[in-house]
Amino acid sequence: MGFNQVKQIAKRLLDKSPRAVKDSGKKIFRGLVSPYARVRLSVGVQPLSFWWGRDRGQEIARYYLEELFLPEFSEDIRGNCLEFSANDYTSRFGEDSRITKIDILNLEAGNPHTTIQADLTTANDIPSDQFDCIICTHVLHVIPGFEKAIAELHRILRPGGIVLIAVPQVSMCCPEYGELFRFTQEGLRFALAGAFEDENIVTRAYGNSLTAAGEIRGLAAHEFTRRQLNHHDPRFAVEVCARAVKR
Hints:
Elements: H1 3-15, H2 19-31, H3 35-42, H4 60-72, E1 79-84, H5 90-93, E2 99-106, E3 116-117, E4 131-137, H6 146-156, E5 157-168, H7 185-193, E6 201-206, H8 209-217, H9 226-229, E7 239-245
């Protein structure tokens, strides 16, 4: 069924309703998302983007990470910090006055940003009790032994240290990135509880059925209103995040 057919059916239903319901329904229908995005949500089998919408604007998942999760816990970014792949978020969300040192961890050689090359699923040379804050975004779902990696994150944190984690729940799967897993809010908490005490774990589930549909159709964050983006239903979460503290 095409978009115009859907619109015609909706119009007929609204025309049979009382005026107040009709007017409200029309506003909801027209204000759902931008007209172009509205069509792309309902027509065709191909997504608008095969790059999570990043080639068209800010990814929906990154909106939740960059506009909600990391700002909420930005004060945790302090002392000796570790981030994966590159310094994308440590300097951006942490204040210079609170940060002592930034290390960048990579598994593969050749990344110019790397200060530590190591595999967290095997024996490595990273000292225990080393970091005050670790930012681990979109990493665990590509690690075959993510339980071992979580245990290592706990080991290399100092007592009182904090790890900030983000993983996808509803998203396109890209073979190029070797994606293996998706996490629910409960699943991420369960995975972390093997190393961190449950009472020291705070989780967040961001997104809803509308933005989840947009995520897999390749829409970008700007094609939704703030109200739509900021309505959260863990049954349809796009991004799942956690803050875990080492006791």
